[in-house]
Specification:
This protein is of the alpha/beta class. It contains 19 helices and five strands. A five-stranded mixed sheet has the order 1-5-3-4-2, with helices on both faces. Helix 2 crosses helix 4 (102-112). The longest helix has 18 residues, at 266-283.
């Protein structure tokens, strides 16, 4: 039974709000301090090439600027127009993270690194004719001075010195991400987590998002370039292990769990991968009327808590359990329209899923 359009719009708005939900103001830990430095565009390319600067794991895949935006940014550098300063964090090992400048550092890298000479810039009337509509190969052959002009240009960078091994430092960096992301398209919470909480757990989550059954079951989520798929998988693990600790602040809840398990041993990671694969192998047999988060999350939780009960059920039996769940009072439109992250209502939905898939 498909959900009505009004409810679908309401759920969509709430999903977007939760993806960008902000923490409360944070007082900087005493060990953190900041300073300003300048870096040439060539220097930024070197830092990225040497892995001294991280934009996020698999950063190429999550770029969200369109080609006209990238072209106009290069044109601004070429014309020496004022460029807003970037913000990097750095630890004692000179490991940098781009807090504000994810898209800009990516465009600089693509333009100067010579990795793809067939890369073609947009043909725009307000852009320098030496680059407008040209491939990088054409620019190298006809106007090589362009690369030197862009590469030697210096950009101001605000640097925050911190300790990546301390949870309070990572939490503070996370909050700075939320406040300072000003370049074009602001990073959402999962994109920020992907930058800040780098480690083998986030790598596992991103790998799970590529699972074939998951991609076929929730194609739009899994393929979303703003990391909506990995965010659902992170929440799956959070709720499976920590549901009883949830206290109405979903963004904090998820980030704290990720920080707690940022770098785990191989045995723990293998256990989590097995849990997810077993769950999605069953869930993917269900044909969804709607792939909104509120339904996907509950189904995954209900099945994960009843793996042994669900694994031998037929496709028809699983579909019937799904229909029963969607008809439960916990999922009536009026309740969902009132908000889905409220603790009491969230627990009601998850408990209904655990009960129904356990039948």
């Amino acid at each position: 039974m498909p959900i009505d359009s009004e409810l679908d719009l309401q759920l969509n708005r709430e999903e977007e709000e939760l993806e960008n939900e902000e923490y409360s103001y944070a007082i900087p830990p005493q060990n953190i301090y900041s300073y300003t430095e300048t870096r040439s565009c060539y220097d930024i390319v070197r830092m990225l090439s040497d892995n001294d600067l991280s934009r996020t794991p698999d950063f190429q895949r999550e770029d969200v600027w369109e080609l006209p935006q990238k072209t106009r940014f290069i044109d601004s550098l070429l014309k020496k127009l004022p460029i807003p300063s970037m913000c990097f964090s750095v630890d004692a090992n000179d490991s940098y993270i781009a807090i504000d400048g994810k898209q800009r550092t990516g465009v600089i890298f693509d333009f100067l690194s010579k990795n793809n000479l067939d890369y073609k810039l947009s043909d725009l009337e307000d852009v320098d004719p030496r680059i407008s509509g040209k491939t990088l190969k054409e620019i190298h052959e006809n106007n090589p001075e362009v690369f030197k002009a862009v590469g030697n240009l210096s950009i101001p960078i605000n640097v925050i010195k911190c300790d990546y091994t301390r949870k309070d430092n990572l939490t503070y960096i996370y909050r700075i991400f939320q406040r300072l992301n000003t370049g074009g398209l602001k990073l959402n919470n999962q994109e920020i987590r992907n930058c800040v909480y780098r480690g083998n757990f986030i790598e596992l989550i991103n790998d799970c998002n590529k699972n074939t059954n998951w991609c076929n079951w929730v194609e739009k989520l899994a393929n979303d370039k703003r990391m909506k798929g990995p965010e659902r998988i992170l929440l799956f693990f959070c709720m499976h292990y920590k549901l009883e600790h949830y206290e109405n602040k979903l963004s904090v809840f998820m980030s704290d769990f990720l920080a707690e398990h940022q770098n785990e041993n191989d045995s723990w990671l293998a256990k989590q991968k097995k849990l997810f694969l077993n769950t999605i192998n069953i869930a993917s047999k269900i044909k969804l009327d709607s792939a909104r988060n509120v339904y996907v999350d509950a189904i995954l939780y209900g099945i994960s808590k009843n793996i042994n009960n669900c694994k031998d059920k037929s496709d028809v039996e699983l579909q019937n359990l799904y229909t029963t769940l969607m008809s439960d009072i916990a999922f009536v439109p009026d309740k969902l329209k009132a908000g889905t992250s409220n603790k009491a209502q969230l627990l009601e939905r998850y408990n209904a899923a655990r009960r129904i898939f356990g039948e």
